[in-house]
Amino acid sequence: MAIRNVEVLKRHNERIGTVLQLAAQRFFLICIFGTVVYPLLHFFFKLEVRGREVLRSVGDRFVYAAQHYYEWDPLLLWCAGIWVLAWRRHHFIANSIAGPFWSQSPLHRAASWLLGIMFTIKDHEPESGAVGRATRLLNGSLPVTIAVYPTGPVGRARDRRFYPGIALLAGSCPAVPIVPVALKGLQEITLRDVLQLKRPRLVVEFGSPFFGGEFLDKSPEERLWALRERLIHAWDEPEPAEILAGLPDQLAYQTADN
């Protein structure tokens, strides 16, 4: 990556989390985007949000690590699962860590500034890239939420490669809670289902928080693998109906009755 481009991205990252940037981001996402999109989500989908009470107990600085399929689904997830809380807790407007897609042009970078997106910079993490900026925000004095998407956008693929940013952030902020967030159903939804108003089911589920400090005794590679296992387990935790389906018939009926 050219030195000039690196400096542009570094300057962009340092502008994320400033007073001006946060004011613009909060006004746009809370007052405009969420107000318009939230009722549309309920119109087009059977939307279910689980475990949102977790966010009320994690404190004023935390990371949420979410499943990620397409470049646009972080906004869908935030609007469906967090927007209603952000009116009272403005720091629930998350600054997020993203890859090169959002840094391709001045227009992309302007949109990223408005949405609070920081860019990872190859060979400059964690000191001066997105992870470094996120670390300084999380270890600062102001309330802040950082969103990370460890797999990048996987589309319909089932294989999930994890990028090292989550491990670097966990190691740099060991006392900051990490909340797994599952986005269930999106991978199976087609545009035809939405346009035909079939209202496909979409679930946003917040899991139990854990801390990066649990993995400090591991090497960077082992830490990334342990975080991968923890997050995949949280994301793929079966729903009650799936659990019952796997039980013998008699036991399933008894469990359901209880």
What does this structure look like?
With 258 residues, this protein is α/β, with parallel strands linked by helices. The protein has one domain (3-257): Glycerol-3-phosphate (1)-acyltransferase. The chain has helices at 3-15, 19-44, 73-81, 83-86, 106-115, 130-138, 165-172, 191-195, 220-235, 240-245, 249-257; strands spanning 46-50, 61-66, 95-98, 117-119, 144-148, 177-184, 201-206, 210-211. Strands 1, 2, 3, 4, 5, 6, 7 and 8 form an 8-stranded mixed β-sheet that branches. Helix 5 (106-115) links the parallel strand 3 and strand 4 (117-119). The longest helix has 26 residues, at 19-44. It is globular, with a radius of gyration of 19 Å. The chain starts with a helix and ends with a helix.
